[in-house]
Amino acid sequence: MAVMKTKCCLWIAVCAAACVALTLTTSALAAEKKTQYAKPYPLEECVVSGEKLGSMGEPFVFEHEGQQVKLCCKGCKKDFDANPKQFTAKIQEAAKKVKKYPAKTCIMSGEPLPADGPASIYKGQEFKFCCTDCQKKFDKEPARYAAKLPKN
C-alpha cells in the first residue's frame, strides 16, 4: 500500500513538472512572437476612402499580414477585406517613398535600437524606437518629438 501511495505521489509530481515546463515553453514562445512588430502604416489618409485619418474620429487600426493598416472608420474594413491585395499594394508603394530613420538610437530615450524594434511614420519620415513605451509616447505628440530629429 505504501509503495502504491509513493508511486501515485511520484506520478503526480511528474505530471505537475510537465505542466510547468509546457507553460514556461508556451510563455517563452508567446513573448518571442510579441517582439515582432508590424510594419508601420505610411499614409496620412485612409487607403480605402482617401479620407484624412482622424477626420472621422480615431482611425480604425489593425494588422494585415505583418502590415499595420489604418482606416478612417470601421466601415472601410469591409471594402478592404473584399480586395486586400489592391490596398496592400498601395500601402507598399507608399512605404517605398518613406525616408529611412537616420539614427542608431531611439529618438525618445537615446538608447540603442534593437534589430527589429517598433517604428512609426510621421509625415513621410520613419522613426524607430527602443521599446513600445517610447513609440506610444511619440505617437501621442509626433510633431513635438519629430522636431528632435537631426537635420541632414
Task: Describe this protein with a few key phrases.
two-stranded antiparallel sheet, Ribosomal Protein L24e, Chain: T, extended, 152 residues, 5 helices, 44% helix, two-stranded antiparallel ribbon, alpha+beta
Describe the overall structure.
There is one protein chain. The protein has 152 residues and is of the alpha+beta class. It has 3 domains: 1-34; 37-97, Roll (Ribosomal Protein L24e, Chain: T); 98-152, no CATH class. 44% of the residues lie in helices and 12% in strands. It starts with a helix and ends in a 6-residue tail after the last helix.
Radius of gyration: 23 Å
CATH architecture of the largest domain: Roll
Low-confidence spans: 27-33
Helix content: 40-55%
CATH topology of the largest domain: Ribosomal Protein L24e, Chain: T
General shape: extended
CATH class of the largest domain: Mainly Beta
Number of helices: 5
What is the terminal separation in angstroms?
81 Å
| Residue fraction in strands | 5-15%
Taken together, the total number of domains comes to 3
Largest sheet, if any? 2 strands, antiparallel
Number of strands: 4
Pattern of helices and strands: HEEHHEEHH
Query: Which secondary-structure class do the elements indicate?
Result: alpha+beta
- How confident is the prediction overall: mean pLDDT? 86
Widest sheet, order of strands: 1-2
Write the layout of secondary structure elements.
Layout: H1 2-34, E1 60-64, E2 67-71, H2 76-82, H3 84-96, E3 119-122, E4 125-128, H4 132-140, H5 142-146
Antiparallel strand pairs: 1-2, 3-4
